[in-house]
Amino acid sequence: MPQLNRLRHFSYIAEELLLFVLDTRGIMATFAAFLQSFMEVDNNTAAARLVETVTKGIQEKKGRGIIIIDLRGIEGAITQFFVVCQGNSPSQVEAIAESVGTTVREELGEKPTAVAGLGLSHWVAMDFTDVMVHVFVPQMREFYDIEGLWEDAETIQVPDID
Q1: In DSSP terms, which residues pair with 123 in a beta bridge?
Q2: Domains of the chain: which residue ranges?
Q3: Which fold has domain 48-157?
Q4: What is the pTM of this model?
């Protein structure tokens, strides 16, 4: 008889331990989901600040036709946002790209991970990981039609500043 009582007691302890572990897993899963959500919100906020700062840098050099393409809802997108704009000449395209780099560095302490196209300055691409910036001369912008390639994404047109 004492063995049967010990067995029942052991079974009871095992059941309580299992319930505790499952409850802990539930708490951990809830915490992990909260943490993931918090990280996404924080990441989205950082990306939004970066888009805002990039736009400011473009506007400082009179970049025109600014379009923000929100790629967060597009499966397989390589970044969260594209910011597309144009300058009237290669020298203005280069000045806009330099302004974006300087503004982002001074205000957010970030540098692009890569910059391509500064030599000819017909199309400069700047990769800030969560945000890609494309600065074109009008003919190249029309030819490559990045806005059309991502037509499924939500776009925001920023008014030109005179």
Answers
A1: 136
A2: 48-157
A3: Beta Polymerase; domain 2 (3.30.460)
A4: 0.73
